[in-house]
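Lab notebook page, bench 4
Experiment: in silico fold of construct C2
Operator: M.H.
Input chain length: 390 residues
Purpose: comparison with the prior construct
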Amino acid sequence: MQSARIAIVGAGLSGLYAAHLLERQGFYDYLLLEARDETGGRIASVTATGLPTAGAVTTADTFDRFDLGPTWFWPDYQPELGHLVQRLGLQVFTQFETGDMMIERSPNEPPTRAPGYASSPASVRLIGGMGALVKALHRTLDPTRIKAGQRVRRMCIGQQVLLESETATGTVASWQAEHVLLALPPRLAEGIAFDPVLPAALAAQWKKTATWMAPHAKYLAIYDTPFWRDQGLSGAARSIRGPMAEIHDASMPGGSAALFGFLGVPARARQTVSDEVLRSHCRAQLVRLFGARAASPMAEVIKDWAHDPHTATAADRDAAASHAGAPNVAPDSGPWQGHLAGIASEWSPQFPGYLAGAIEAARLAVQALPLPPADAAGAPSSTLPLGKRT
């Protein structure tokens, strides 16, 4: 059994950032447990060939990264995330919105062209996609602290917290910690058996908190050139005909061109249709909107987050695609008080569900830990009572 003062459950953006903050303060006595085989959580991307971006890449390939999860942030409105991106040396660019947009107002009428509009504040993306942020944070961490492929199934509290995780092949591992930071959507905590159980009111609140992105599906089409710009189009579109309700230019400066759209088809309806059929309908829609050249993408991908078991529950498949208010972060009574806190984006007071929310929630949780001074070897020298925040 491996022990640490702090166990972080989930290696998405909030979990990685919490670990990053701990190490910046000279604290290395933590474990980062991730159910997926790779870090990043709801941040996911593909290369220009449509393949996942895990593993080694060439320098040129780092530009051709396309997001299947979160895509934008707003540094003027979310300065904490903006400062992190700057400190990590990542490059940003403004979302392309120059030109007209296309609108499908009726299933029985052809699309119309309308003046586009620029977001205010400006929507900003990262060179290399949001995966560049995950990789940059990952590089700052001690890799021996990260345990991938470990889905936490049970937590039991005595003098310390005992965590049991399971691999994809069914192998069970045990871990021990004094404090646990939950870097996963509140609803996914229902998949963990807590012994003793969490306070009923808190468990119910977490269960009711919608997981941002969980009902969504994205379609991505990658091209050699952004041909729609030659027509004076921004690549943006809105449609009540579908299957995509909202479309944007996803091109990468210095890389390939791309369009992506959010599918407007409900999650349960999508489940009855194959990805091949959905892709054919999405291509047909792009042809209606942007012309015949849209019919032949170099690669195309559908990512349905509603059917990702590490993101969504059955309740999320019927949920509206909106940001939920932040639930209480931690138990305020009982044996779990002071030993458990939520740090995923949904627990952010200002930006629940956004990338900036993951940064804020993680920072607040780490600040609530009165970290001991590191000794000369960088090892912590005292226990860490976990503060509470609601």
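Observations: The longest helix spans residues 275-290. The chain has a mean pLDDT of 90.
Next step: discuss at group meeting.
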